[in-house]
Each structure stands twice: as structure tokens, then as C-alpha cells.
Amino acid sequence: MVLVVFVGTFIPPIATRSFDPSQTGEVVLYVLSHSLVHSLAPFYPLFNIVALVLLVSLCVWGNRVARVFALYAGLNYILFAFLQSVAITDRYCVEIVTGNVIIMLLVAFTWLWEAVVMKGDYYLRGARRTRLWVVPLAVLAFWYPLNPRTPMPDFNPLYLVAGPGGWHSA
């Protein structure tokens, strides 16, 4: 698994319009800032609200809603794989950050497999306090307090519901 992630980070992006390999970093940043997901900003609140409801349900009912949570996570990662890593622009035509697609599809497959086998334990009452240090990091990742127009931190609490693109879209 680690090898796949490691290799995925070194797979170059592909574009229908050629570019100099020394511009790979610029192409990746361009794709990520012009990806298809930006056109879907009106749907951000729906996805975030569903995720918040599922997370609260998971905390309350644990394994009884775990399959639904795992399916939601897997399907979300499939969407992330293509919507966040693909752009159609005048500059490079169709561009794909291939490594991101591979890594996100691997994560999606892992969640979908969990939905089938259900080996995880989602009850919080048995969680060791020493493992809860990741919770603030998960909240920060979900919140994503970054202004997409200025790439600067922006801790607007509305981002918990809509994500930054939902409030900054033009």
C-alpha cells in the first residue's frame, strides 16, 4: 500500500496539449486550481451536510450505520478522484493529475471494501484516548479553512457546512 502511494506521487500528469516536463509542478497546480470540482460549488453544502449527519450518526449509533458511512466515503472518493484531478481548459485542453486519481481510487476501493467486509469497529466507547489526537486534524481537514482566491488561511465557520468553494464561488 505504501509503495502504491509512493509511486502514485511520482506519476506525471497527462494533458492533451504537450508541456515541458520541467513544468510538471505548474501543470499540477493549474489542474488543481481549475479542476471540474470548482464548477460544482453549489453542491458543496449538500455533501458536507450529509457527511456531518453521517459522522454524528456514526458517533451515536456506531457500527449500525458504518456500512452507509463506508459506502458514502467510497463514493465520495471516486468523485474526488475525477472531479478534483481533471480539468478542461484552453491552456492544456484536458489535463489529468494521474497520481492523484490513482491514490484516490485506491482510497475509494478501501472504503468500498470496508462496506462489504465490515471489519472496522466504529463504536467510540472503546476508543483509547491516546488515539484521539487525530480528531482535531480530521476536523481541520473536513473544515478546510483555506480561502481559494487568496490561498491563505480563512477560519470561516460556514466552511464546515459549505466548504470554501461554496462561499467564494463567483
For the largest beta sheet, what order do the strands appear in spatially? 1-3-2
Query: What is the radius of gyration computed over CA atoms, rounded to a whole number of angstroms?
Result: 18 Å
Which structural class best describes the helix and strand composition? mainly alpha
The ordered string of helix (H) and strand (E) elements is HEHHHEEHHEEH
Helix content: 40-55%
Shape designation: globular
Strand residues, percent: 5-15%
User: Number of DSSP helices?
Assistant: 7
Number of E-state strands: 5
Name the poorly predicted regions.
none
- What is the first-to-last residue Cα distance? 39 Å
Instruction: Sketch the major β-sheet.
Output: 3 strands, antiparallel
Instruction: Estimate the mean pLDDT confidence.
Output: 83
Describe the secondary structure blueprint for this structure.
Elements: H1 2-8, E1 14-15, H2 24-33, H3 44-61, H4 66-83, E2 86-89, E3 93-96, H5 98-117, H6 134-143, E4 146-147, E5 152-153, H7 159-168
Helix pairs in contact: 1-5, 3-4, 3-7, 4-5
Summarize the structure in words.
The chain crosses the membrane at residues 41-61, 68-89, 101-118, 130-146. Keywords: Membrane, Transmembrane, Transmembrane helix. The relative contact order is 0.17. Helix 3 (44-61) packs antiparallel against helix 4 (66-83) and helix 3 (44-61) runs antiparallel to helix 7. With 170 residues, the chain is mostly helical. The model has no long low-confidence stretch (mean pLDDT 83). It has a domain at 2-41 and 62-123. It has helices at 2-8, 24-33, 44-61, 66-83, 98-117, 134-143, 159-168, and strands spanning 14-15, 86-89, 93-96, 146-147, 152-153. The chain is built from 7 helices and 5 strands. The strands form 2 sheets. Strands 1-3-2 form a 3-stranded antiparallel β-sheet. It has a two-stranded antiparallel ribbon with strand order 4-5. Helices cover 55% and strands 8% of the residues.
